[in-house]
């Protein structure tokens, strides 16, 4: 308990953008989130008042950090399970618990548990040899998908394999793997739910997540043209997974949509990229909801604040992107209705540096506004002018060719 405010103290392990945005939500609840950051220039460490520097793999650092916290939660899933269990044995209130978080940290454990729950998912198997992969592919057909059982995210630790020789190159590294059938996709969607220790649940609208090179680049809320019965089924599935796995906090269920059914792809037991739209587009953001859940407060209203909400991630361009304040100036002038969120990260190509959110009643217009704002920040030029210039150059080239 914070003796200055009389309010509970929430500690978040990890100092990235999720902790930064959770801190922003905590301010409205009268708190300053305690953050365990790896470095003083981590995104959350730049804005939070109560910051400790330490490694999430160091039990002593974790114990020092947890001392005085009413609850400890996470902005990533990389804390070793044994260390989380050690904190629990010390009497620390950890949310989600080590038992629940295991199913987000270990893909084989996740698939086994989902199978026990009867959840729809791609066919899969644990593999340790090239022969195992070949036998699986004989049942499902090539290509197949190899996944590292731990540590993968944003496309890392995932390989689409089309032959035995390609499989051997991955298997021979010795990392722990599972293999899955490659699903023919219409798109990917996500269902997000929050659950409190009391057992209250609150579910958000199902969203579409647009992927490029394994990275989510755009989120559309709600998912366009999703059969209402499928949407409800996805929400009910997310609630059931959270309840059966004993999740406390926010749970994101990533799903494959093959046009007929939804199949579980991944689980994330923390605030998630697919829920960033909720800061501006929902009555209660996922970050406030996560705090409410881990503190066992009553959960907030999840309804959208506009018919359509679109979030676009801002990725560092070839020059790193967003190095000039001038880009922000021009973006805000061009798209005054778009909300900008920067994470305090040093730019580098392909890195998630922030996101923009647009809202409105016309989906095409909302998507265009978000994309235009992101293009300003990514390229530093008016995307419409760039398109016109490109078309003019194409026309000149055609005339020369003629």
How would you sum up this structure, described in words?
The chain has 402 residues and is an alpha+beta fold. It is built from 13 helices and 17 strands. It has helices at residues 17-28, 59-66, 81-89, 98-105, 107-117, 130-140, 164-171, 228-245, 278-281, 286-294, 325-334, 363-379, 383-401; strands at 10-13, 34-37, 50-53, 71-74, 124-127, 144-148, 158-161, 177-181, 187-195, 201-203, 207-212, 215-221, 249-257, 262-268, 308-315, 339-342, 352-360. The strands form 3 sheets. Strands 9, 10, 11, 12, 13, 14, 15, 16 and 17 form a 9-stranded antiparallel beta sheet that branches.
Describe the structure concisely.
With 402 residues, the chain is of the alpha+beta class.
């Amino acid at each position: 308990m914070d003796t200055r405010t009389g309010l509970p103290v929430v500690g978040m392990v990890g100092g990235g953008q999720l902790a930064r945005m959770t801190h922003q939500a905590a301010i409205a609840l009268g708190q300053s989130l305690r953050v365990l950051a790896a470095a003083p220039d981590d995104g959350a460490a730049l804005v939070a008042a109560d910051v400790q520097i330490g490694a999430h793999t160091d039990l002593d650092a974790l114990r020092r950090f947890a001392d005085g916290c009413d609850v400890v939660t996470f902005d990533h899933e990389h804390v070793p399970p044994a260390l989380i269990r050690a904190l629990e044995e010390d009497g620390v209130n950890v949310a989600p618990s080590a038992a629940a978080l295991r199913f987000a940290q270990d893909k084989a454990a996740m698939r086994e548990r989902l199978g026990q729950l009867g959840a729809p998912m791609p066919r899969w198997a644990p593999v340790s040899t090239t022969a195992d992969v070949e036998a699986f592919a004989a049942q499902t057909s090539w290509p197949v998908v190899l996944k590292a059982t731990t540590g993968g995210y944003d496309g890392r630790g995932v390989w689409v394999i089309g032959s035995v020789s390609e499989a051997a190159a991955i298997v021979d590294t010795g990392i722990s793997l599972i293999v899955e059938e490659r699903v023919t996709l219409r798109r990917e969607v996500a269902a997000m739910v929050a659950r409190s220790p009391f057992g209250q649940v609150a579910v958000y609208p199902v969203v579409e997540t647009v992927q490029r090179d394994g990275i989510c680049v755009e989120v559309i809320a709600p998912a366009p043209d999703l059969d209402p019965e499928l949407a409800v089924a996805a929400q009910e599935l997310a609630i059931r997974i959270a309840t059966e796995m004993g999740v406390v906090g926010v749970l994101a269920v990533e799903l494959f949509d093959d046009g007929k059914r939804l199949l579980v792809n991944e689980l994330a037991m923390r605030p998630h990229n697919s829920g960033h739209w909720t800061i501006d587009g929902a009555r209660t953001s996922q970050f406030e909801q996560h705090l409410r859940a881990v503190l066992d407060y009553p959960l907030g209203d999840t309804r959208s604040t506009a018919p359509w909400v679109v979030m676009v991630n801002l990725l560092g361009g070839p020059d790193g992107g967003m190095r000039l304040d001038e880009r922000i100036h021009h973006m805000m002038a061009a798209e005054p209705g778009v909300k900008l969120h920067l994470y305090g990260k040093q730019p580098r190509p392909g890195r998630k540096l922030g996101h923009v959110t647009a809202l409105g009643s016309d989906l095409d217009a909302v998507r265009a506004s978000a994309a235009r704002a992101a293009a300003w920040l990514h390229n530093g030029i008016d995307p419409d002018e760039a398109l016109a210039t490109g078309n003019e150059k194409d026309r000149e080239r055609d005339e020369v060719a003629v």
